[in-house]
Design brief:
Layout: H1 39-52, H2 54-62, H3 64-70, H4 76-95, E1 98-99, E2 108-109, H5 110-114, H6 122-130, H7 142-157, E3 165-166, E4 169-170, H8 175-188, E5 192-196, H9 202-214, E6 219-224, H10 244-249, E7 250-254, H11 260-271, E8 276-280, H12 286-296, E9 305-308, H13 321-331, E10 335-337, E11 352-355
């Protein structure tokens, strides 16, 4: 195995509050007990560690070739022994990563900051989940937040989003978000829906079918670097472009949403529309989302929404759409997060930006 590179933690890494085994701060009067979660048991080393923190992900990425080798043997006894070796390697790597400790204290290792025995210790998960800094969902307690987060991890781990169909086509929207967005479409009755990020076209077909049910016409303009038929990693029963609703309601534009020529083309369409809804679901890197929100959110009509999707990624890494969303809101007081649109389990926490002026 090649030696791992030296890692350093960003200054944002800090110690979370002390928590009880139930996952609720000791000062809280309301405690919803939740079972101790061992992510390595539930999700396996890859998803388990990469879901917990960037530090664990960096450690896992460093020994990824080892994981591929040692876990190939499916015999339970052998696999258990090999996985123990893998976990020891991970602990050694994470123990060497240093970050800032509590105020006035010298730098400590990540494990010292978290106060845990190893990366597979449940508290490694709890410190990530139970800090007020990580209370992302529209709920009242940190335990409720933790329950939804744990379900979100399972939803991702089992790739449920690739087994959801709408009119025979895989539609990768979180079902709770799809329900909320469809209600927004019904309420606003937009004559133009701008979607950045087509993927296989399942969501565009869903929005088109809602426009059809409303019966007032309208158009979905959807943008992507690749054509839907080029998406080979999605197995679907039917193709969206074979549905008559596709030609009737959907305009596909190939290219980057931040391309000036494409933005002008979409803006010209928005200028002619009375009610515009914007959905941003293309690249989720912070820089791209920053550009995209600046270009497309202003196209949303007053009273409508610019929905910045997959802000959940801010919980998994530092270079994320949530940062871009917060920067956008800081300079655009005409928008505010409408958290009433979040039906507990959402991939877009704080991402439903309603234009109020």
């Amino acid at each position: 195995m090649q030696p791992c590179p030296k890692f350093s933690c960003p200054s944002t890494l800090k110690s979370g509050p002390q928590v009880l085994s139930a996952g609720e701060p000791a000062s809280s009067a309301t405690v919803i007990p939740i079972p101790t979660i061992n992510l390595l048991d539930v999700l396996g080393p890859s998803d388990g560690l990469s879901s917990v923190s960037d530090v664990a992900y960096m450690a896992f990425a460093c020994i990824f070739p080892l994981e591929k080798t040692v876990l190939k043997d499916s015999r339970p006894a052998v696999k258990q022994e090999k996985q123990h070796t893998l976990e020891q390697q991970l602990v050694q790597i994470v123990e060497s990563v240093r970050g800032p400790g509590p105020k006035g204290t010298p730098q400590q290792t990540v494990l010292e900051i978290l106060g845990v025995e190893g990366v597979n210790h449940p508290k490694f998960m709890q410190e990530r989940m139970m800090s007020e800094e990580w209370k992302w969902f529209n709920v009242e307690t940190l335990s409720e937040d933790a329950i939804i987060f744990a379900f979100q991890l399972l939803y991702k781990h089992h790739t449920v989003f690739l087994r959801q169909h709408w009119l025979g086509v895989v539609a990768m929207q979180n079902p709770m978000d799809a329900w909320s967005i469809n209600d927004i479409i019904y309420t606003l009755k937009p004559d133009l829906i701008i979607e950045a990020g087509t993927a296989n076209g399942g969501s565009a077909l869903m929005w088109a079918s809602m426009l059809h049910l409303i019966g007032k016409g309208g158009r979905v303009v959807t943008l992507d670097m690749n054509r839907p038929e080029q998406i080979s990693w999605v197995e679907t029963r039917e193709n969206p472009w074979d549905n008559p609703l596709w030609d009737q309601y959907v305009t596909f534009i190939q290219g980057s949403s931040t391309d000036p020529a494409i933005h002008k083309q979409v803006k010209d369409m928005a200028d002619k529309a009375k009610m515009v809804l914007v959905l941003l679901d293309s690249s989720h890197e912070e820089d791209h989302v920053g550009l995209e929100t600046g270009l497309y959110c202003p196209l949303a009509s007053p009273g409508s929404y610019c929905i910045v999707q997959d802000t959940k990624m801010g919980r998994f890494n530092w270079h994320n759409p949530k940062n871009a969303l917060q920067a956008f809101l800081a300079s655009h007081p005409e928008f505010a997060s409408d958290r009433t649109r979040e039906l507990l389990f959402t991939d877009h926490p704080s991402g439903y930006l309603k234009r109020t002026g």
